[in-house]
């Protein structure tokens, strides 16, 4: 399904990219949301580096919350230059554990889980695997809906993306 993407610049994206140097640390705060599960979904992300911030979001007509959590990470990592040092904050244990604990065994087992069933969202796990091959990514979990400022911003972007995709708005 196509992803509708909305770019919201706190600063211009090019200004944000120009802030990234080989010694920089990029912080990414992501969230996904779904109205029904499955149902219309949205994702949002806040990226920060050297005092510069950039926000982006998108949505899909029919999806799941887990896919939106993952797509927020995929779309954010896709924007960054290779060899970037990244800390990615997510309120999704599924995403964090998938990347930190399960991915290696899924690949070794031919994209099967421990009980031999196919890995759900394999397409996005494969994209994340490819995107992180040339990045240094530390996956950090934050409690969702608990007052974490950047997580709340990412959540608002994701919820607004659901509204935008329902209205057929993209930029």
TrEMBL record:
<keyword id="KW-0479">Metal-binding</keyword>
<dbReference type="InterPro" id="IPR012337">
    <property type="entry name" value="RNaseH-like_sf"/>
</dbReference>
<dbReference type="GO" id="GO:0003676">
    <property type="term" value="F:nucleic acid binding"/>
</dbReference>
<feature type="binding site">
    <location>
        <position position="31"/>
    </location>
    <ligand>
        <name>Mg(2+) 2</name>
    </ligand>
</feature>
<feature type="domain" description="RNase H type-1">
    <location>
        <begin position="22"/>
        <end position="163"/>
    </location>
</feature>
<dbReference type="InterPro" id="IPR002156">
    <property type="entry name" value="RNaseH_domain"/>
</dbReference>
<feature type="binding site">
    <location>
        <position position="31"/>
    </location>
    <ligand>
        <name>Mg(2+) 1</name>
    </ligand>
</feature>
<keyword id="KW-0540">Nuclease</keyword>
<keyword id="KW-0460">Magnesium</keyword>
<dbReference type="InterPro" id="IPR036397">
    <property type="entry name" value="RNaseH_sf"/>
</dbReference>
<keyword id="KW-0963">Cytoplasm</keyword>
<dbReference type="GO" id="GO:0000287">
    <property type="term" value="F:magnesium ion binding"/>
</dbReference>
<dbReference type="InterPro" id="IPR050092">
    <property type="entry name" value="RNase_H"/>
</dbReference>
<comment type="similarity">
    <text>Belongs to the RNase H family.</text>
</comment>
<feature type="binding site">
    <location>
        <position position="69"/>
    </location>
    <ligand>
        <name>Mg(2+) 1</name>
    </ligand>
</feature>
<comment type="function">
    <text>Endonuclease that specifically degrades the RNA of RNA-DNA hybrids.</text>
</comment>
<feature type="binding site">
    <location>
        <position position="155"/>
    </location>
    <ligand>
        <name>Mg(2+) 2</name>
    </ligand>
</feature>
<dbReference type="GO" id="GO:0043137">
    <property type="term" value="P:DNA replication, removal of RNA primer"/>
</dbReference>
<dbReference type="Pfam" id="PF00075">
    <property type="entry name" value="RNase_H"/>
</dbReference>
<keyword id="KW-0255">Endonuclease</keyword>
<dbReference type="GO" id="GO:0004523">
    <property type="term" value="F:RNA-DNA hybrid ribonuclease activity"/>
</dbReference>
<dbReference type="InterPro" id="IPR022892">
    <property type="entry name" value="RNaseHI"/>
</dbReference>
<dbReference type="GO" id="GO:0005737">
    <property type="term" value="C:cytoplasm"/>
</dbReference>
<feature type="binding site">
    <location>
        <position position="91"/>
    </location>
    <ligand>
        <name>Mg(2+) 1</name>
    </ligand>
</feature>
<keyword id="KW-0378">Hydrolase</keyword>
<comment type="subunit">
    <text>Monomer.</text>
</comment>
<protein>
    <recommendedName>
        <fullName>Ribonuclease H</fullName>
        <ecNumber>3.1.26.4</ecNumber>
    </recommendedName>
</protein>
